[in-house]
Design goal:
Length: 427
């Protein structure tokens, strides 16, 4: 075979390779089970070599593969115990990850809006693992915009002191370590999405729950936070936006990861928002809220049609809602105290299986029963949600129209880091 023919065959094989299909690659992360990992390494290396590409800097949390990489002289040679992966530092030896360290704030010169934004932009957390600790920085940036600083205007003394506190907290985020493995690929997953809002921000947190014989495992897989628009909005409107945001994140995760999802449940601590969603009706004269409820209804239909999943909506007390942490200023000390609650969710997800029950005065008896009585997969309650003909709640919110929220940044690449088996290869 001549060189040109060999090259053409190599390129054909390269196009067929799962590793490079529809992607331009500078770094590849692949999560594999035990059996095919070595074969995948040799096959990918061979096919890429046929196309004229040399794969290098392989690293794995599997000791046998690490030795093989070393013998083939294609492993990492920088001498560091960690690898940079999508804004995180990944430690193969422990299969853990943390956010990359932000350089210390320079004491030379005066702080400006440009310098503040430049420093905060260095913290890249696409999975939202440390979202609660970053809310204060987003709120601070909005303060600077409202104060009408030019890009290079020096900040006043009050804002300088606040910036020093925020930057100190952000630099300590590297002390928080997260297990990369969150899901067993051979078991079904129940996705639980909590949402919440305050006057300053709204957001959601998504947890993957897997049931075993005597317990459940619950792990945070994604969170998202947005600052409330400068134009004043009512809290119920922002709570509704949080549910809308949670749906957008849900579809992004489902599209990017092919794990087996058995159920999807939304935990909401605003009874009026539950009433809107469960009845498909908004009694207030609020066109925006009605449109968002319509969007959520369409999301539910799409979820059923595309994935065969029926979204359920349940009431969650505020003190048990982890999404509450992404709606307010949480300093590093409070984040440390609530770290386990944040990464695993409320205890009932991992132990009792049963959703907490509360009196729901704002909901009709039918909707109240559906929103408070719920057990995770494998238990007795598998009732369906009511249609728009259900009795509407008596309470309604007095709200002004809000602006349509911006689209959610797609977390496909980031979600691939944590949502499967132990990390085997990255180069």
């Amino acid at each position: 075979m001549c060189d040109s023919e060999r090259s053409e065959v190599g390129l054909t094989q390269l196009r067929r390779s799962r590793a490079v299909r529809k992607r331009q690659i500078t770094m590849l992360l692949k999560m594999l089970d035990e059996s095919p990992e070595s074969a995948m390494y040799h096959q990918t290396t061979s096919r890429m070599a046929d196309g004229g590409f040399t794969l290098r800097s392989w690293v794995s949390n599997n000791a046998a593969l690490q030795r093989e990489f070393h013998n083939d002289r294609c492993g990492t040679d920088h001498g560091s115990s960690s690898e940079k992966v999508l804004g995180y530092q990944y430690y193969p030896a422990t299969d853990t990850m943390c956010v990359s360290r932000m350089s210390p704030v320079s004491t030379e010169g005066t702080a400006t809006k440009r310098k503040v934004l430049s420093q905060l932009a260095k913290v890249f957390d696409p999975l939202g693992l440390v979202t609660p600790a970053l809310v204060s920085s987003k709120i601070f940036l909005r303060k600077l915009w409202l104060a009408k600083y030019a890009w290079d205007d020096p900040l006043n003394e009050e804002h300088c002191q606040e910036w020093q506190t925020i930057s100190s907290n952000v630099q300590q985020l590297t002390n928080f370590s997260f297990q990369r493995k969150t899901i067993d690929s051979d078991k079904e997953v129940s996705l639980i999405l909590f949402s919440d809002a305050s006057q300053t921000s709204y957001g959601c947190a998504m947890y993957a729950v897997q049931q075993y014989d005597d317990h459940c495992n619950s792990n945070l897989i994604f969170s998202k936070n947005k600052i409330a628009p400068i134009k004043s909005k009512s809290v119920p409107t922002l709570e509704l936006l949080a549910v809308f945001l949670a749906f957008k994140c849900l579809f992004s995760i489902l599209e990017s990861e092919k794990f087996k999802v058995s159920s999807v449940t939304f935990g909401i601590d605003a009874q009026i928002v539950l009433s809107w969603i469960l009845t498909n009706k908004v009694k207030a004269k609020n066109v925006f809220a009605r449109n968002r409820v319509k969007d959520i209804s369409e999301f539910r239909v799409e979820l059923e049609k595309k994935y065969g999943l029926d979204a359920k909506f349940r009431f969650i007390p505020t003190e048990l809602n982890p999404a509450d942490l992404v709606t307010r200023d949480v300093n590093i000390v409070e984040f440390q105290k609530k770290f386990q609650f944040w990464i695993h969710g409320p205890d009932f997800l991992s132990s009792t299986f049963v959703w907490p029950q509360r009196e729901l005065g704002c909901l009709s008896p039918v909707n109240g029963a559906l929103a408070s009585n719920f057990a995770l997969q494998g238990r007795e309650d598998k009732s369906t949600l009511p249609t728009g003909s259900a009795v509407a709640a008596d309470e309604a919110a007095d709200e002004a129209e809000a602006e349509v929220p911006t689209a959610v940044e797609r977390p496909e690449r980031a979600a691939a880091v944590r949502c499967k088996e132990r990390l085997r290869h990255c180069n």
